[in-house]
Each structure stands twice: as structure tokens, then as C-alpha cells.
Amino acid sequence: MSTAAPPADWHRLDPRTVLVTALVVAGVVAGAAIPVTLGLTRWSSLPVAVLQVLAGALLVIGVAAGADRVRWHRTRYRIGTERVDLHTGLLLVKRRSLARSRIRTVDLTANLMLRLLGLVTVRIGTGEQGSESTLVLDPVTRAEGERLRLLLLERAATASPGVHREGELAVLDPRWIRYAPVSFVAPMLGGAAAGAVMQVSDWIGAQGQVIEWVGDRFRETPLLWTIIVLVLAALVAGVVGALGLWIEMWWNYRLEREAGGTLRVRRGLFTSRSISVEEARLRGVDLVEPLGVRLLGAARLDAITTGLAKDHEARNADHNTLLPAAPRTRADSVAADVLREPDTPTGAALTPHPLAARGRRLRWSLAAALAPVLILTLLGALLTPVLLWIALGCAAVAVPVAVALALDAYRALGHALSGRYLVTRSGTVRRSTAALERAGVIGWTVKQSVFQRRAGLLSITATTAAGGGAYTAYDTDASEGLTFAADAVPGLLEPFLERSPKGA
């Protein structure tokens, strides 16, 4: 029985989605085939095991391709004058619709397989939380994806304040790759590489041989040097991985301002990504300086906006990053261009915080460093003197590091008003300088613990619907912090302030 064709204004996904699914599943099955085959040889001969794995692989690929064929047949979308509709599902039919006036993001993503076939995945979102605020068209042709992006983000071009240019705002400088090895990703990837070696060797039943081989290499080496060499090897692997990850994520990077007021970030080597940020939803920028990157005088730039989708893909793709780690002066100039300001608010002179804030950070940092030392000391007194020596070594290393980080955290504290923006800065391992548009502040939260009250301090937080939702000036002078908030958004905090009469 033939199926009636959908109305002319309805569109289907690209039929090559079935081929993409079959190839992706085939790759996954191929990766799992070797350990599964070796596992089956324990109960049968190698030829039989190979035939069993091959039959299972073909079955899995066929089922996946068939299911995707049904999904393609049952999926259609329509771009109306007021709404975008998506209908899909077989047993559980879903009909979802988004008002075009609420659409804030149309992002295009294409992995290597999709790029080879000229396809993209389109994510249409309203910038709100939850999967119901996002429609995914997976996949359509690249031309169709670009057509949808331009159509759905079309806005009447209006004159914007400032003299900053349209078009290209920033492009990739290959020298920025030098910041990749000093990020926190490198040691994480090094640990992951060591874990992967042990896991794969366990799959093929050779973990014991791997451990024995490593032991033979260091049989005559003292334990301390063995640990140092293995850690360095993991770090080298992590550095190589960090460089590869940076190239994959940021190759072909370009930041542009399009007509009509849209910032567009394009990047990616194997998986290309196109992320659009509507300037009407932009509430500021966040200059982020992780410790290693900051020591080299660099920073990255994130957008503070209400218009970026929060789905799984976005969370794992630095969806709000406008500029990767780059020299601090370059990050400041891009921030000025993005905000259409002659001088970047992230470079404003900040009001320092009282010395009492330094004391609080020293106490917190020393407490965190000495807590494990105290535990080791108690265990050493009860069990073995070896733990006492370990505790002494930990204290010798941890205390100076804790003091240095506490002092650095205190130097980072600051706040200021810079034109249309309020600026807050804090952090040491991850220093953040947030420039938030004062008009985007919807409330203030004032916190003052017993210890802060005794020291004459308080923490004041600007709440907003954009970005992280809250930006805090920690441990400010009590009167200075309240004055800062009152001046930043006049009329919002005054009803809750008690001012001393003049001359009192």
C-alpha cells in the first residue's frame, strides 16, 4: 500500500541518513569485534568465533539502518510564517512546534562522515532549558542548513551604537596552539591514556604481561624515579592529546558579525561547527584565565547570553566560547569589538577588596592543605612511622602552594563599573573577569556570614537570566559592596538599604 506524499510545504530529512547510520554503526562494531572474537575463542574455535561475530555485526548494522530508515520515513518538518513544526515517530508520534519569534539559535554541526557527504545537523533552539525548546534536523544538506539558518535568524537590520566593524572580528592564529599543553586538559588526557592502555590490555587478556613488561623496564630503578618517569610519560601523552584536541576543535576558527546583528563562530577540523549568537541576547562577556594559560599571559573569551541552547552537544562543545585561549591583549580587543565598546570593560581598573578578605582565603587554603596532613599524622601515630614522613613531605609541599594560591586569589578580587557594564573578578585556578550589562541585572543577592560580619565584609551577587545566572563580588567591604550594587542598577537595591542621615 503506497503512502500519501506529504504536503508541498513539508520537507524530509536527507535520505542518506540511512547510509550514515550504517557506516557509524559498522565502525563501532568493528572496534568491538576484536575483543569479542577473542572472548568467544574460549568456548569455540577461531573460525567459528569469526563467523559468529560477523553474523552478529551484520545483524546489528541491519537493525540500526532499518530503524533509521523508519525514522527518516516518519520525520518531516515545515517552516511556516509563524512557526517551525517537526513531526516524527512511529509508535510514539511526536509533533513539536516552535514560534519563529522565539527562535534564538540555529547551529550547524557536521562530523567527518557528514562532511564527506555534504550534510549537516541543524539544531534550532529558543535558548530556554529543556529538550522541548530545541528541534533537531539530523541530517539535511549543507545548503539547506545554511538556508534555514539565514531564514530563521533573519532580523531587520538596525543601526547599532559604536564604530566597530561588521564582518570578520577574529581568525585563527596558529601560534595560539602553544596554550593547549598548559591547560587542565593535558593531565586529564594523560591519565585517560594510561587507563585506556590498562583497559585494552585487559580486554585482550594481556594486562598481566603489560604490567610485567613495565616492571622489567624499571627493575633496577628506585621506586621514586619509577613514579616520576611514569608520570612524565603520562604527561607527554596528555600534551600530545591536548594538541590534537585543540587542532580538532579550533582549526578554521573564525568569528564574524553578520548583517542584522548576529555573531557567528565557525570552527573544527574533522567535525565542523557553526554557532550563532544573536547580539540582542548578548548580555556581556567573561574573560576566563585558567592558571596555566594565565601564566603565559593569555585568556579565552566566553559570551554571557540568554540565547544559547543547553543540550548535550552544546555542553560538550564550548558552545559559549567566542575566542579560544589567545594573548590577553587580543582577548581584550575582541571583547571590545563584540560589545561595540571603544574600551573593553574587561580591562577596567578594579576596586581592590579589604585585607580581611586575604585572611579568609589564607585560612581556607591552609585548612584544605593541612586536613590530609593531620589525618596522615594521626594514622602514622597509630600504625606506622612511615605515614609520619609522608605527612611531613605533604606539609612541606602543600603549605607553600596553599599560601601562594590564597594570595593570588586575593589579588584577583575586584569589582568596578565601566560604562554600561558592571565588572567582577575572582578565582585563582580559574580566574574569571565578567563584564555584565547593567540593564541585564534582574536582582541582587547579599550574603554575609557571621565571620564576614565580624570582618566587615559581604558578598554581593548580580542575578541575571544570562550566562551562569549569577556573578558575585566576593568579600567586598560592606558599605562599598552595597554602594557598588546601588550605583550599578539605580532603584533596584535602594528600598532595602538603610542610609545614615547626613551629619550623624
Structure overview:
α1 (17-40) packs antiparallel against α2. The strands form four sheets. This protein has a seven-stranded antiparallel beta sheet with strand order 6-5-4-10-9-8-7, sandwiched between helices. A six-stranded antiparallel beta sheet has the order 13-12-11-16-15-14, with helices on both faces. 44% of the residues lie in helices and 25% in strands. The protein is an alpha+beta fold. A hairpin with a 5-residue loop joins β2 and β3 (94-99). Among the domains are: 8-74; 185-248, no CATH class; 355-411; 413-496, PH-domain like (Roll). Residues 1-8 and 309-317 have low confidence and may be disordered.
CATH third-level topology of the domain at 413-496? PH-domain like
- In terms of DSSP E residues, the strand content is 25-35%
Strand order of the largest sheet: 6-5-4-10-9-8-7
- Level of helix content? 40-55%
Evaluate the radius of gyration.
28 Å
The end-to-end span amounts to 91 Å
Helical region count? 14
Low-confidence stretches: 1-8, 309-317
Q: Tell me, rounded to a whole number, the average pLDDT.
A: 84
Q: What is the CATH architecture term of the domain at 413-496?
A: Roll
- Assembly annotation: single chain
Query: Total number of β-strand segments?
Result: 19
Just give the CATH class of the domain at 413-496. Mainly Beta
Shape: flat
Biggest β-sheet strands, sense, barrel? 7 strands, antiparallel
Question: Which class of secondary structure composition applies to the elements?
Answer: alpha+beta
